[in-house]
Fold:
Amino acid sequence: MNINTWTEHLSHWRTFLSERLTSLDEVGEQKKVERQLKTIERVRYAAVLNPKVLIEFINPSDLPLPHAEDYDYFLNLNDSQKKAVETALGNNALSLIQGPPGTGKTQVIAEICLQLYRKNPDVRILVCSETHVAVNNLISRISEYDDSIRIVRIRDKEQNSAVDEFSPEAIISTYKEWLQANCNSQDTINIISETLSNYEDRSLEKALALSANIAGMTCNRINAYEFESSSEMFDVVIIDEVCKATLPEILAPLTIAQKAILVGDPKQLPPVFCSEEIEVIRSIEKCNLQSYLYIDDLFLKSPNTTLLDTQYRMTNRIGDLIGTLFYDGALKNGRNIDGDKDIIWVDYTPTELWPHNEPDSEEPPKIFNLDECRIITRILKDIDISIDNFTSVAVIAPYRHQVAMLRRLLQNEHFNNLHVNADTIDGFQGKECDVVLFSLTRTIGSFRFLADVRRLNVALSRARDKLYIVGNLSYATNHKLLKSIIEYCEKINCDE
Structure:
């Protein structure tokens, strides 16, 4: 990795966060940015608990991958998954696992954690991600296999009943119940209970995290604590969906770990900047935060990157589309099911041009397409009638206003056999459904957002059994990637 590129990129982040801080009014956001700035400063001066992790992150060494070991695996893994586990458990300070859609990255992370715990029952593992949902999924999966592992799940204000048993509140409550049942001295019980009640929440959370085998939290939450000595260092940090996190979010856990495992996919969605953040970026001369993604570069150049190469989600036809168009043919089909008409392009003649032209409006155009909303509703009704078993359906659109229109229409519909959820592409990353309906929405104008390679990869790879793409063919064929997708589809025209 070019050290000048790294230094410049880190400097751009420092400038961006400093500028962003001056424009924030909300206290919570101010604290988050202040903590991220502090992390940047620690990295600039190498004030981290294990410099080896930072050195490998900045300049990956050309070390040979560890020799395969005869592990007694807890879970059923394929060869690429075993290779990822073996690499992660090796002596390297940093390893990367690329997990395309449906390749079982959560399974691999669970296996790594179980192997680490088997080797050392006192191991400290920090499991984190950019989102709460990803952390919840990991914690839930790991807890299924061994109930002796000490787990704490530290949240912000987010609530999720699936992981409540691992919250600090639940752990303290369980301990107080144990104390009542096993301690004969009521004075002792009162003193300990009062001490716990008076404990500063952040100090208590930090203590629980350091006493657990697995601590789960978002990357940003880590910055709420001060980890100041090697005695407070985690043995291993695992960052899931790392390519969707910003550089400051990634650096926070790297500064407090003896070893780091980064799990993600540079061919799925990148970090998202809000409109206010984009304005700040544009105000900074030659700022490259939108055009350059350091973590993507790292996945491409690190010798310790392992690709999970077999997908178990999609039918063969859908898997072939995803593997060929987005992964250069490197993705194999593990499910081995030949679907029936499993990729369908639904063409139609627009009743008008979408989106509407609003020349007098100062606001950005609201991009929606009522033709496609009506077509999708009709398709869902037909699917509901044609099946007799429960089916999950994702209705996906690239634009928020189109999603709002779809939700408004669908809330008035009743389906006997379908569970339907409509959301943006970003809202569906990490999820899957039996059937996906993707609304192109536009019939005129720019392809820039619509035909983004990473966004299309996420949108089309959510489907297990059937994929419908609703869009005007005469518009879509003008774009090279969309035209390639059309070649995989059986085409129907809903005008006929």
Q: What stands out?
A: The chain has 20 helices and 15 strands.
